[in-house]
Amino acid sequence: MSYELWYWDGIPGRGEFVRLALEAGGIAYRERVREPGTSANALIEDMQSPRKHPPFAPPYLVADGMTLAQTANILLFLGEKHGLAPASLEGRLWVNQLQLTIADMVTEAHDTHHPISANDYYEDQKDEAARRARSFREERIPKFLAYFERALTGRTTWLAGGKRWTYVDLSLFHLVDGLLYAFPKRMGTVASHYPNVMALHARVAVLPALQPYFDSGRRLPFGECIFRQYRELDAA
Fold first, then answer.
1. At the N or C end, where does the chain have fewer CB atoms within 10 A?
2. Are domains 3-82 and 89-207 of this chain identical in fold?
């Protein structure tokens, strides 16, 4: 029996963190909104349907009779259930802590182009976005990446310290990928300061377990989602 992943169609967004874990873990799943014949309103209709534990927003995963929402929560479940996280409680909590920190940075990246309201167009808040993006580039990108660099220092190849990747390595890969897309000038300036982070990004990019997904055409490109490329918001 496969899991059901529900997320908006046409964008990688937060759903991509879950997709990467499912794909790399070889876990069977159906992406319901992208199935042929599914209506554009299917996600909203399903999300509002009666259930014991309703999700607030996508992504959410229907698995083993449960509805699991929030990216980090879904990955916590997949990590323990499918061996995508350390076996020890301490290790699972550590990768969950890292995942929650990634979630914090994802929110800040999104808010560079929607600092006032997600319901308003970027063009309606460009001045505020410019100020927010400058702070993100100059202060927050270095602070977050320095933390992940420190988390990798002295460990083996991966964030959990073991010989095999965990879901949080995949998530850090996607986060860095998004930053390289949205802020290429800034990342071109600072990336060399975080050699461990960039080396992990390169390792995940060539993981054999992910190549079928990368080569399939199912991986959605960045665009109108969390990581957006506005030239005026980027600078070295």
1. N
2. no
